[in-house]
Amino acid sequence: MPYQPAGLWEESGTGKTYHQSKGEGLYRRSLYTFWRRTAPPPSMLTFDATSRESCAARREVTTTPLQALVFLNDPQYVEASRVLAEKLLTTHVEEPSARWDELFRRLISRQPTDNERTVINELYEEQLAYFQTEGIHVDEFLQVGERPVGEGVDRADLAATAVVVQTVIAYDETVMLR
Amino acid sequence: MNNLVERRHWLQRMGLGFGSLAASYLMQRDELRAETATAAGIPTGGVINPTHHAPKAKRVIYLFQAGGPSQLETWDYKPLLNERQGEPLPDSVRNGQRLTGMSGNQAILPLAGSMFKFEQQGKAGTWVSELQPHLAKQVDRLAVIKSMYTEAINHDPAITMLQTGNQISGRPSIGSWLHYGLGSDSDNLPAFVVLITKGKGGQPLYSRLWGSGFLPARYQGVQFRSGKEPVLYLDNPPGISRESRRSMLDRLKQLHELEQSRLADPELATRIGQYEMAYQMQASVPRSG
Fold this sequence. Notes:
The structure holds 2 protein chains of 2 kinds.
Chain A: H1 8-11, H2 42-46, H3 65-73, H4 75-91, H5 96-108, H6 114-133, H7 135-142, H8 155-170, H9 172-175
Helix pairs in contact in A: 3-4, 4-5, 4-8, 6-8, 7-8
Chain B: H1 2-40, E1 44-45, H2 79-83, H3 91-94, E2 118-121, E3 126-129, H4 133-137, H5 155-164, H6 174-182, E4 183-184, E5 193-195, E6 222-224, H7 242-263, H8 266-284
Parallel strand pairs in B: 5-6
Antiparallel strand pairs in B: 1-4, 2-3
């Protein structure tokens, strides 16, 4: 039972209430996500999951603005970005550019090109400046999701790195096979 | 397995010959045209382009009253039913039709007329029940269609029929067809929006009722909800300002332009356009507080 906006089951008249899992259950592979046909998991429908009511010979592949909203705002993706960011940060403390190598390798299975590296570095610097001047935003942003932030991590750096990870998750090459 | 699919595909192509090739080409071309239009920020035409008639309507508001009063109590005046109140349903009417789970165990199936009085209203003399005194005053501005019916004997297949044209689920809903056929002239709001009444109990409403069936998911109805986030995942995460999001999207666009210079895939232009539309939607979707 992953993250899901509150109230969807009630609104559909299922007569049931969605109980989000705690701990391990929250992070199970989406293959095991509980499926109620009256009100299926909304982010999966947004990404062309079939409604499971009739046979689908071929899956649709679409691009919609709602998909962008899920990548950027769904707590599941925000939290995943933060947790991956923390991994990158603790492995490559001093050297941000080594983080992007690992980020690209993990998500796209290749190294970033020089041009991509420039763009990513600029994004990182912008976001770092944003979070360093607005300390309250750091705390708000890092609170998304249930997994706690590790001790002794530079929190502004973590927030900025998490935005970079989010950006690469939303990057076309990460999500589409072309 | 893969080989099997390919062989089947090949046989199908050979069997149907150029007709199917032409059809798939046309479909791709139309898709492409719609996609390119979005990317360029020009109002998107649908697949019916140009329309067969000059359009007069700008939008359609479709109120579907699931669980509302029946037609017999509102618009469909049936005096004979009241005259023969309590008599068993004649076989000539039932005609061997299945009974529902609710009525199947009844000893008799009596006729039951409307509990409410009807009167003719307006210049057209439209029959309106006493339940709708205010609508009755506006009745000359309404078109009442009484010829639509389904052969379903239960709510769910009947509702599915009304929304998708088929009792069995899997076909696109009427709003999806309209979006697909006519497109949209808005580039910062969804073309097909769905609002459902909250917390009234009664019949469940399935998302397939505004689903896109076998059409791509971008034609599915976007459900607006009450409260401060009317579209799911509309708001930035806490701590992310609109400016911060703008800078992120600008950099993401640069990444996509780099990819585009390698690939020249029109789908990529669509994705860039859709991220931008998401950002526009965040500002333009009305919020009820």
